[in-house]
Amino acid sequence: MRTLALLTLLAASSAFAATDADREKAFKADIAPILEKSCIGCHGKDKAKKPKGGFDATSFATVVKGGKEAGAGITWGDAAKSALYKSAELGISSPEDDLAMPPKKAKERHPLTKEQLEKVKAFIEKNK
Ligand code: HEC
Asked: Which residues line the pocket of ligand 1, CB cutoff 6 A?
């Protein structure tokens, strides 16, 4: 019985513990294309310019890290504590907010769609 409990525990934890390699693979497949369309124009595409707010959205490592002021780009398991999610969510729900991304004043704005936002949320919360 005890063995069974232990095996169940092991199976449950391995199902949820994502490695950085898993996360990066999912990032490249699902998230990078979204950021490419909506974010990197101001956040790292032009290597000759500094990314706005110190947030480089062109690589997995720098997206996880985040920028200068808004905290971690990604806190695994918690979208509400992830600047990547928060800024994109505000970009849809409250474009007036300082952290709303893309900023309201941007000439060409491609806020995420609701579906894309859900993808970002699932990516952060599932890969903990
Ligand atoms: C038109 C340009 C533009 C686009 C497009 C844009 N941003 Fe920004 N972003 C900015 C600027 C400018 C700042 C800095 C704001 C400030 O310092 O007041 C910023 C800051 C940020 C920050 C805060 C960095 C920090 O910690 O200080 C995050 C996170 C962010 N952007 C995410 C995104 C995401 C995600 C997208 C795509 C959905 C995006 N941005 C699209 C211009 C842009």
From this structure: 38-39, 41-43, 52-55, 66-70, 83-84, 87-88, 91, 101-103, 106, 112
